Queue: 2 jobs
Job 1
Amino acid sequence: MKEKSYGIGQLSKLTDCKIPTIRWYEERGLLPVASRNAGNQRRYNQQHLTLLRFIRHARQLGFDLPAIEQLQKLCSCCLDDHLQADQIAKQHLADVQQKIAQLQAMETELNRMIDNCSYEDEHQCQVLEVLANHKLCSSGHVV
Amino acid sequence: MKEKSYGIGQLSKLTDCKIPTIRWYEERGLLPVASRNAGNQRRYNQQHLTLLRFIRHARQLGFDLPAIEQLQKLCSCCLDDHLQADQIAKQHLADVQQKIAQLQAMETELNRMIDNCSYEDEHQCQVLEVLANHKLCSSGHVV
DNA sequence: CCTTGAAGCTCTAGTTACTAGAGACTTTAT
DNA sequence: ATAAAGTCTCTAGTAACTAGAGCTTCAAGG
């Protein structure tokens, strides 16, 4: 069976990613160089689709491009040094867990706002205070 | 009792935010204009500290500046239209819940990598596939 | 008091990660 | 066959910072 292939416009729609952004990821090296058809237009396959979705979701979660590159390498097991891979994974895990904690705190507060704040005026909502709380934060600030 | 006050360098250290970035948030209107001392230097208080931490954490979680502004307004109850506030809060809540789901999936996979992948070679790690999975994604892509 | 080094000021320019547009070529649908 | 839609490259613009030059202000030691 023949693999499904996509034009850049289709890929753009499937991933909710603008066309120039796709081309830019290719240029930047985050997305493998696409093959071209007779008329020099890019053709993408399932792997590109998966990878691009991964990149977009990771970006939405606040990872920058170098971090995404590192996660990619981690996944494709390009890192032969397992100890190093382990360390990188652990570092990203810590980052992810911190993000989860902060988002959950924010979720709680948003829920409280929706339940209380819009029907009565007494509760001062604290999304801001909760997300400002450094106890949820692994970085070194003290006060 | 007199309120604690900070210079821009102290604030920068306490929030892990670069000095020009702090000034830029002020210019941009995200941070209230700081009062100045006799020599024209900015002085910050506890409120600035809380707010700046909130901004930085929200940025790390992938919110853009307009979204942060909106959350701020929501918190300070500047929106007198409660129905509108409710809708904005709900929209952010959905966004937050989606981010949490994606991060938790990523957490699971990173943990699996750390447990298995670094000690034996059999398990192909799937951080990438998991984060590419559109079932966790509320946006409209279909394939 | 004076100095000297750190901290702050403004303004300009550079970086990252896109995003939009111009002008030409290719594909597709009638 | 041709018109419309899609894609190409290249250049320029935007958002959110980040760094540096050149100058002023603060604060601690002599």
Job 2
Amino acid sequence: MDKTDKTPLALEAFLPYTLSRAAELVSRRFATIYKDHAGLTRPEWRTLATLGQYGTLTATLIGAHSSMHKTKVSRAVQSLEERKWLRRSTDENDRRIEHLELTREGERNYRKLAELARAFEAGLKDMLGEESFSELNRGLAAVERQLGTDVF
Amino acid sequence: MDKTDKTPLALEAFLPYTLSRAAELVSRRFATIYKDHAGLTRPEWRTLATLGQYGTLTATLIGAHSSMHKTKVSRAVQSLEERKWLRRSTDENDRRIEHLELTREGERNYRKLAELARAFEAGLKDMLGEESFSELNRGLAAVERQLGTDVF
DNA sequence: CTAAATTTGTTTCATATGTAACAATCAAAA
DNA sequence: TTTTGATTGTTACATATGAAACAAATTTAG
């Protein structure tokens, strides 16, 4: 028998494709929110969101919680620091570590964007319908359970 | 009442994040297949897959079917042409258009990779379980229906 | 205690990406 | 017909990305 199948692969039904396509569609829309309202890049938004959620963190932990490469975190932190949306402070016991936390203005902007983010997600839920929205979330949770143990 | 909510946004349960996270997890794994077995980049794989599925196409159509920016398509086509995996031919009636099709070797490699792709997806289905896999697909289809009319 | 190994975060460098400008060609309008 | 306006695909340029090298600090081994 043949080693190769003649049936072509349908890209529009192939999970790695449909998944990245859907992610791009949603990310592109959501990006307009933090871009238009705050002039943030995606790494900057994620850093802000992670600090807003967890409070004080190190750069390494921000990367772990938001699935970002350490160079992305490093650059986003620099940028947010220049805007005075976050503050650094060196650890007393281990001077390699810097504790990062939002400033008052950082917090204020975080709350504003978090609110817009919730509204965005609610709108998405409406568009997709309760059922599809739940199914999508359950499916994504399954992916996270099975593949999420990777470094990134 | 307050304009802002004090409840932080949980990034790990926020759809734009979980979706792009899952897409990256899956894409990263699948990428090892076309990288290791054929030394292809993602745009190159998608171009190959689209031509393999549809036969002869123009660059614009490849972009439409695979959600790729025209510069990505242009570069991927150049690269695949250099490998002699695809062939160009100018349209008789409209000399702006180039018809692109896989060479015999391109076809051969397409079939091999398509087979590996199917196996990869089957493995994913096993890992996630029938139910989660279906839910994920239905959820992604809903996203495509609602947001898929965008240019990209 | 000293040396080797590890951790943290930054920077360098090469690559990947998309916007915008472009050349070539064709279509539509005047 | 001329000329104005799209369309197709490539290229130039500026930005984004990550691997690898790195400095500084800490930890572990011997």
